[in-house]
Every structure is written in C-alpha cells, then in structure tokens.
Design brief:
heterodimer; A: rod-shaped; B: mainly alpha; two-stranded antiparallel ribbon; about 65% helix
C-alpha cells in the first residue's frame, strides 16, 4: 500500500461529496419545476484489485468512493398509470364539457326554452277557443307558433354549431399531436447519442416524458422503454413513435354534421390511412361527434316531427274562419303538403320545420263547416289547446329528452369527479416518488457537508502524519 | 408515503379549488334563487319542475276560460231574467184583454201597441252580445241572433222533430232539432268543459213551429182583431214562460258549476305555485347556512395551508 493512497482516498471522497452537493443544488433549484424528477448521485465504494498480480500486495482496504452516476428516481409502474389516468381524465373532461354545452343550448328549465314556447302556443289556442272569431287571439297564435319554430331552429342551430366547432378543433389537435410526436422522436435521438457517449440525459428524459404525458392526455398514448434510454410511444395498439421516427395522425371524414350518420369521424395514420383507436381529449371529442351530439340532434328532430304531426292532424280536423277545411300547419320548408307525417317517413327536422302560412283566417278553430257562412264554433281550437295534456304528445317527448340530458350530464359530471380523484391520487403517489422534498435535500446537504468536512479533516490528519514522518523523523541529535 | 413540497402545494390547491367550487355553486343558487339551474343539477327535479310549469300555465289558461265563461253566463242570466219579467207583463195584459166586455176598442189598441213595444224590447234583449258575439245565436258569426222581425238568424236548434212515445214495438224517440245545437263550451279544467251558451230556439222555442216572438206578435194582433183566440195564446204563453224559467234554471246551475270550478282552479294554482317553488326555488335559510359552513371550511383550509406551506427545515438550520 502506497504512502499516499490515504490522500487519494480522501480526495475521491471530496469529489464525491462535492458531486452530492451539486446534485442537491440541482434538486433544490428545480423544487417547483413541473415534470422534474429528483436525482441522486449514486455513491459507490471503490474496491481493491479484483485479480491480484504476482508481486502486488493488496492491503484489503478500498480505494475510496466513486460518484460518476447520477440517476433519476422514478417508478415506471406509476408513470404508466399516470399516462392511462390522464387519458381517462381528459376524455371525461371533453365528454362533460360537451354535455354542459348541450345543456346550455336547451336552457331548461326556464322561461326561454322550447318547453315555455310550446306552452305559450297551447295557451294561445286556448284564447282562440274563448274568442274564435277575434283576430287578436288568432294573431297571438301566429306569433307564438312562429316563436316556437324560431326557438327550435335556434336550438338545432346551436347543436350544429357545437358539432362544427368540435370537428374543427380536431384538426388543431392532430397538428399538436404530430408536433409533439416529432419532438419526442427528436429527443429520443438526442438521448440515444448522449447515452452512447456516456453523457448525462436526465434533463432530456424529463422533458421527453413530460411530452409523452401530454400526448396521453391528448390522444391516450402509452409508452414502453426502448434501447439506449429511448421510449416507444403507441396509441391504441399502433406505434406512434419508434425510437427516432414519428408517425403522423390526421382527423378524417365528414365536415358536415348531417352526413354524420353515414361516415364516422375518426383518426387515421398519415401515410397509411389505418384507423387508430384514440382515447384522451380526442376520444372524448370523437364520442361527442359520432354519438352524443347526433343523438340529441336526432331527439330534437323527433320532437319537431311530433309537434308537426300532432298539430297538423288536429288542425286538419277543423275548418278555418272562411269555412274551408284546415290545412296542415307545418312542413319541412319545401312547401309540399306533408303527407308523410307518419313516423320514419317524415323529412321534417328541428332545423327545417316551417309554419306553412301567415294568414290568421286560416287557423282552423271550428270543428264544423256551416254552409257558406262563417262560424264561431270553438271546438277545434279547444281540442288543439287540450293537446298539451296528451300523454304521448310533443311536450312529454321534449320533457323526456331534457330528463335524459340531465341524467347523462350529471352522470358525466360525477364520473369526471371520481376520475379526477383517482388521477390526483396517482399524481400524488408519482410525485411522492419523484418529487423534491426540501427537508430531505437539506438533510442530504448537511450529510454531504459533514462528509466533505470529514474528508478534508482526513487530509489534514494524513498531512500531519506525513509531517511527523518527513519533518520530525530522524532528527534525533540534529 | 413520502410527501414533497410540490405535492403538498398541489393537494392544498386542489382542496382550496374544491372549496371554492362548492362556494360558487351555493352562490349561483342564492343569486339565481333557483336550486335547479340546469337539467343535470337534478334530473328528476327538472322533470317535476317542467311538468309543474306546464300544469301551472294550463291552470292559468283555465282561469282565463272560467272568467270568460262566467261573463257569458252572467249576461245570459240577466238577459233571460229581464225577458221573463217582460213576458210576465205580456201575460198580465193578455189576461186583461181576455175580459172582452170590459175593454174599449181604444184600450185594446193601446194594449196591442204596448205588447208590440214589449216584443221589440224582447227581440232587443235576445240580441244581447258579449264581445260582439250574440249570446243566443249559437255558433253564428253574425252580429245578431234575431232580425227585427223576430226571425232566428243564429245556428242550431231549429226544425225540431217532435218526440214520439213508444208505441207498436217502436222505441221512444227523443225530441231532435233538425239542425243540431253546437254547444259553446269553456274548458274549466283538464277533464271538464262547461257549456256557457243557450241558443235562441232552446230558450224561446223553435221558430219553425212558432217561438216566443211569433206568439207575442200574434197576441198583439189578436188583442184587437180576435180576442177570442187569446185564451189559446195564453196557454202557449205559459209554456213559453216555463221554457224561459227552465232556461234560467239551466243557466243558474251551469253558473254554479263554473263557480265551483273557479274555486277548484284557484286552489290548484296555489298548490301548483307552492309545488313549483318547492321543486325549483332554493331553501334560503338552508342554503345560507350551508354557505356559512362552507366559508368556515374554506377559511380553515386557507389557514392550514398558510401554516403548512410556510416552514421547511431551512428555517431551523443556522
């Protein structure tokens, strides 16, 4: 064993503790950085020669400490769960937002929605029943009916606008996803090169894993480790990023809500055109486009059809002010006589429902034509006013639509609440592994400080022994 | 579990957010005064609220129908009362005119003139209108029920086919007007519609076989020309007065019915209003109490957060 090997051991200790302090400093500096993973200097004792040479003498004491490696402290299982949970949270958030927006389109319960407007029409017919020949009451029916039609148009238009906006946002989403996938691929390449040349990659890896998590929320990707510190990213079974290569995604098919029933909107790979099953925000938006919004539009159309059928049938049973048989009140805007009011054949929707005339004399308040003379019979008007109590009428159909919407929306909200709690728990456990705790860093700092002082003291001690050996030994009699 | 500063901050933030969310919800309820602001707040409550609103507006419409119907019935009642009184005067004069020897020709002529005058007044009363609608005209859209000659202009009740008693194996047939009466009704509740009119033929007799106005005209004429026929007219006049009394009784009973409906309707409106309020409106004391509690919770959370996030080991190292 060399005379100076003790000094060397102490020097490695000084370096190692210095390194520990550096890493502590980096941790403290990034205590509030989102996505930062705490690091640790891996201290390792340096042993003696493993294979003793013929003339070598091993003192059986180690050669000090080595702190070359700095690692990230993270739990791969928790990271994987975080990806899955953030995808679910994002999907449920999108679904909840969709239903909230639909609720806003309907504005129920209240004085401004379709229910109130429909009731006003019935009430106006009740007034006509009281004064069948009076033009004021008839004008009220005309105005209230026109308001109801306008309200149906507005609500249907709101739903359509919501669909178009959601569809447009998919394009932006796809661009964002493609940009992030490309960044991940670039980082993968950088990490591979750095790893191969033995450079630290902790910060690059943090940045990449953050991007993967963002992609999880956007389209629900999962990641698996690859060679040389790279990760492979896949979505719904299809590989999105493999090492340094990224695939592009695009949203395809119909931009028109009315053709939605035929072709579903979806994400496909570009190039390739393979449909990809996505989750996350994209999944939530796709379910809004392909399922939720069309469903409520269809139900609103059904309400419009049942309003048309109900009023047309009742109105055609009467005679108008001039003794002529009542015409149908509503059609689909084409001006054709709506003979196809039977279920399944009608072309009437909430968007095209149209009042066929604006001549108040044509409202059929009477049930009986008195030959050639006008009549003040009110029975048909009374029958129309009574329609609002019909057990399978439009009012009931609309109410069941609103109740369904309420149930759907409240289920979506409570699901989201539950999911948020789960996601928060996963985040917390992830953070409990990879987050920076200042108390811990302070303790580490003290530890390294003391170790550093001790190593320095060690050097002093060796220095003193050498001093004794060199300067004081063999000086007897000098 | 290892706790870090960042996770502690995030958890505190989440807790504070939840608190604020709850406060915002209560505040929304208090400022709007409604506990249901969108269907998802309470789907079943929404259903009840919409149904109650519908029922309430129906009940309000029924109330309008009822007051309209009462107006119609009251006018009919007072017109019929006056007509009955005037017909009674005609009867008095007819009885007086029956005493053939006791009256001079001049007195007869005067009586005839008086009766003719009363007939004009009767026709005037029979043309009473409510909002332009002649109340004895059925569903006519004309402005009068009888013209100045006492001819019926309304719709329904004329050309009565008389009742036949059961005979020779044939069942009895009730009296049927050739032109059926179309009742003018007012919907007074979901299930109940009350007829508010009575047509001229029903109250004054079928014009095709001679109604009240034709009879009075005959009396006026025969007072001068053929006093002997008056006793026959007197019998018919008694029948006409019976018919008038019956019509009055009919109108009276219908008025009763519609007034009962009015009482029921106002009770219904009251209970619907309170039901609607119970479903939709906020329970003010309860919500304010909950807001207070939530506020206390929020302040406690803020205080705790301030205490917990402040210190680290850093504060205690020299």
């Amino acid at each position: 064993m060399s005379t100076f090997s003790g000094l060397n051991t102490a020097t490695t200790a000084l370096w190692a503790q210095q390194r520990g302090l550096d890493v502590t400093g980096q941790n403290i500096a990034n205590v509030n950085t989102a996505g930062y993973t705490r690091q640790r200097a891996e201290l390792q004792s340096v042993g003696g020669n493993v294979v003793p040479a013929v003339y070598a003498v091993s003192s059986q004491v180690g050669q000090g400490v080595d702190a070359d490696k700095v690692i990230r402290i993270r739990d791969a299982f928790l990271e994987g769960r975080a990806q899955i949970e953030s995808a679910s949270t994002a999907r449920m958030t999108a679904q909840d937002a969709t239903l909230t927006q639909i609720e806003q389109a309907f504005r129920e319960p209240g004085e401004t929605g379709i229910a109130a407007k429909l009731t006003a029409v019935f009430t106006a017919w009740g007034d006509v029943a009281n004064h069948p020949t009076e033009n004021g009451a008839r004008t009220a029916v005309l105005q209230k009916t026109a308001t109801l039609v306008a309200e149906l148009h507005t609500t249907s238009g709101n739903l359509e606008k919501q669909w178009v906006q959601t569809r447009d946002s998919l394009g932006a989403l796809a661009q964002d996803v493609n940009a992030k996938a490309q960044s991940i691929a670039d980082l993968n390449t950088a990490i591979k090169r750095a790893t191969q040349s033995g450079l630290p990659v902790n910060e690059l890896s943090d940045k990449r894993d953050g991007l993967v998590l963002e992609l999880s929320a956007a389209i629900g990707v999962t990641s698996s480790p690859g060679d040389d510190g790279q990760v492979n990213v896949s979505v719904g079974g299809a590989t999105l990023v493999a090492g340094g290569n990224a695939l592009r995604l695009e949203a395809v098919d119909t931009q028109d809500p009315d053709t939605q029933q035929v072709t579903a909107t979806r994400f496909v790979t570009d190039p390739g055109g393979t449909t990809v099953a996505v989750d996350g925000t994209a999944g939530g938006k796709l379910s809004a486009l392909n399922d939720t919004i069309p469903k409520y539009r269809e139900r609103l159309d059904e309400v419009a059809r049942s309003i048309a059928a109900e009023f047309n049938n009742a109105h055609m049973a009467g005679v108008d002010k001039n003794g002529v048989a009542g015409e149908p009140l509503f059609d689909d805007g084409s001006g054709d006589v709506p003979v196809d009011t039977a279920p399944g054949t009608s072309r009437i929707t909430a968007a095209n429902l149209t009042l066929r005339f604006d001549d108040t004399d044509k409202f059929a308040a009477a049930a009986l034509a008195t030959e050639g003379t006008a009549t003040s019979d009110n029975r048909n008007a009374a029958a129309l006013a009574q329609l609002q109590n019909a057990s399978d009428g439009a009012a009931v159909g609309y109410r069941s639509l609103i109740v369904k919407l309420g149930v759907d929306a409240s289920v979506a909200t409570s699901n989201l609440k539950t999911q948020t709690v789960v996601a928060a728990q996963v985040d917390a456990s992830r953070d409990s592994v990879s987050g920076v705790n200042l108390d811990e860093e302070m303790t580490n700092m003290l530890q390294f400080q003391h170790a550093y002082s001790a190593a320095a003291r060690m050097i002093t001690a060796i220095d003193e022994t050498l001093d004794v050996l060199i300067n004081r030994t063999g000086r007897v009699g000098l | 579990m290892r706790i870090t500063q960042r996770s502690m901050t995030l958890t505190s933030l989440q807790g504070l957010n939840r608190n604020q969310e709850a406060i915002a919800k209560l505040q929304e309820q208090l400022t709007s005064g409604k506990s249901i602001n969108k269907p998802s707040d309470d789907p079943t409550g929404t259903n009840a609220a919409m149904q109650t609103r519908l029922e309430l507006s129906t009940a309000t419409q029924h109330a309008r129908n009822i007051s309209d119907g009462i107006g119609f019935l009251d006018s009919t009642d007072s017109a019929l009362q006056s007509m009955l009184n005037q017909t009674r005067v005609v009867r008095d004069r007819t009885v007086a005119a029956l005493n053939i020897g006791a009256m001079s020709d001049a007195a007869r002529a005067a009586t005839a003139t008086e009766i003719s005058g009363i007939r004009d007044s009767l026709i005037g009363l029979a043309n009473t209108t409510v909002q332009g609608q002649p109340i004895f005209g059925g569903i006519t859209s004309g402005s009068v029920a009888y013209d100045t000659d006492g001819r019926y202009q309304g719709y329904g009740g004329t050309g009565v086919v008389p009742a036949t008693p059961a005979a020779g194996g044939q069942p009895a047939v009730a009296e049927v007007p050739a032109v059926p009466v179309v009742p003018v009704t007012r919907q007074v509740s979901d299930a109940d519609a009350v007829r508010v009119d009575i047509t001229g033929p029903e109250a004054f007799g079928d014009p095709s076989v001679g109604d009240l106005f034709a009879l009075v005209a005959d009396i006026a004429a025969d007072t001068v020309s053929d006093p002997a026929a008056l006793s026959g007219h007197l019998v018919k006049l008694d029948e006409a007065m019976d018919r008038l009394s019956n019509a009055l009784a009919d109108i009276g009973s219908r008025t009763n019915r519609i007034e009962t409906a009015q009482q029921v309707n106002s009770d219904l409106q009251l209970s619907l209003t309170s039901r609607s309020a119970a479903v939709e409106n906020v329970d003010l004391p309860k919500t304010i109490m909950m807001l207070q509690m939530q506020q206390v919770g929020y302040e406690a959370a803020l205080g705790a957060t301030a205490k917990v996030l402040q210190p680290t080991l850093l504060d205690f190292l020299r």
